[in-house]
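Quick log. Single chain, no ligands specified.
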Amino acid sequence: MRKKKNKLEEYNYVDYNNYGMNDIDIEINEEKEPISKVIRNIIFIFIIALGITITIDVICVTKYDKGPYFAIRTKTYDDGGTQEFYGLGYKVIKYHQEQGRRDMEIGFWTMSYSVEPTEISALDLAIEFRNNPEKAANKYAGQFMRVTGKIYKIKDNELILRYKDPDDTYTLKIKCPMAENNHFEGMEKGLEVTIIGTIENFTLAAKTNPNIVRMSNCFTE
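-> predicted structure:
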């Protein structure tokens, strides 16, 4: 008598649990894996490129007053030529007033156009710088300022203001190179003047040299 086939044999049943994964699954995974890797690599390269472009513009604008190289100009103000630039996540304002602000500023897209200087006297600046130089540097470095003080020296196209106390404890020099050629008519040592410009950096007193503040793109008022 012929033996009746088992239903499992009739349908050629194979227990794939013994193999863990069938051939179809392997083929699908082999197709998906390279695509996901390509996408990840593209995203990674984009992030690196974005970081490099932002870093270059930040350094050029803040350290060298150059650029921006990776931002698009979107607006020019009728104030002498101030321009706005937008980059990927940042904004640059390149100030160029006829007689006023002439520096560059970088920040987020929400950064606003601002040409109103912070006012301070040479005396108050000297006190702040002497009492806490680090705090003063963080507060004023890169700021557009209006500084009032007495002329100490006129050198080439630069005015040097100075506050001096009897003990030289708070003595401060403020170096103010002019943004444009200036003949300094009617100006002399000891005359009180007001300067507008951007504070670039500070130098701490050493030996016989007092504390020094350096400004840039200055105008007299």
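The beta strands are 72-76, 83-86, 91-94, 104-107, 118-121, 144-155, 158-163, 172-177, 192-203, 211-220.
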